[in-house]
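Example 3.2
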Amino acid sequence: MRNHTISVLLQNKPGVLSRVTGLFSGRGYNIESLCVAETLDAGISCLTLVSKGDDQIIEQITKQLHKLIDVIKVTDISEKEYVEREMVLIRVKAEAHTRAEVLRVIDIFRGKVVDVSAKSYAVEVTGSASKIQAVVDILRPIGIKEIIRTGTIAMARADKRK
């Protein structure tokens, strides 16, 4: 079983997201990550979700999503080449003897400090899930106080032949 990234275009109306997530819970499927926001058209949202399963389970999920009335389009974009990103905000201890080390780590991962206090930094890092996990693993021994992750967003790569 592997992770599949599924992009769903749907009507931006109350209750639609609840019906999508209800479809998953009602069938015992887990959502590993979920991110949703409006597109250029305020009446349409793009929902990006990551779920784990074999090809048969993912096919069943996409068929069930297609049946929902407010769903416009469902695409398993992990079947194509795609770009994915995730963002994390981490509050990490930054005492006198660790401040320089935290700044070096954040610089290496092309992150930035977004808040400073006497004893901590809040940092932002954007990248693939593996990059996010790497920065978390490196900062954990220094002392992570709080962590918030957005979940995966993804977009299929453009066809280079056109």
